[in-house]
Design a protein that fits this description.
With 144 residues, this protein is an all-alpha fold. It has one domain (4-143). It contains two helices and no strands. It has helices spanning 4-15, 20-143. Helix 1 crosses helix 2.
Length: 144
């Protein structure tokens, strides 16, 4: 039994006045053309699918590159923020140490001044004591 397409081709060939070998060649030729046409359509569809797949791959890769770039930028900003925070902390610690040093220096100066004053007072009172002794000895010598 002939397929629908072959049956239709036979009817077309008979209506054109073809018989036996000529009809058979006509049917084969037309079937070959239809096969080629179907194959070409399949190839066209395959190429279309392939183009879509490549476009999707291209978009996916672009998204990946964008993600990687954005992730790198985010990490860079995070590292920069961390470094700035560390710098601020170091600056704070430096200023704190500087204030402590200046305070200790002022306290040392004050303590030194106090010691010098105490030394002067002791020296002054010792001098007064010696002067009194000298005056006493002088008075004693004058009385004699």
């Amino acid at each position: 039994m002939l397929s629908t397409s072959a049956q239709q081709l036979k009817e077309v060939g008979v209506s054109m006045g073809l018989e036996s070998a000529d009809l058979l060649n006509f049917i084969r030729k037309q079937q070959k053309l239809e096969r080629e046409k179907r194959d070409e359509e399949k190839n066209r569809q395959r190429r279309k699918r392939e183009r879509r797949r490549k476009e999707k791959d291209k978009q996916r890769k672009e998204k990946e590159r964008t993600f990687v770039r954005e992730e790198a930028e985010r990490k860079a900003k995070l590292l920069q923020a961390e470094e700035e925070a560390k710098d601020k902390q170091r600056h704070y610690e430096f200023e704190k140490a500087k204030l402590v040093f200046e305070h200790d220096l002022e306290r040392a100066k004050y303590t030194s001044q106090q010691r010098q004053e105490e030394k002067r007072e002791r020296h002054g009172s010792e001098m007064e004591k010696f002067e009194k002794q000298i005056n006493f000895v002088r008075e004693d010598n004058q009385d004699m």
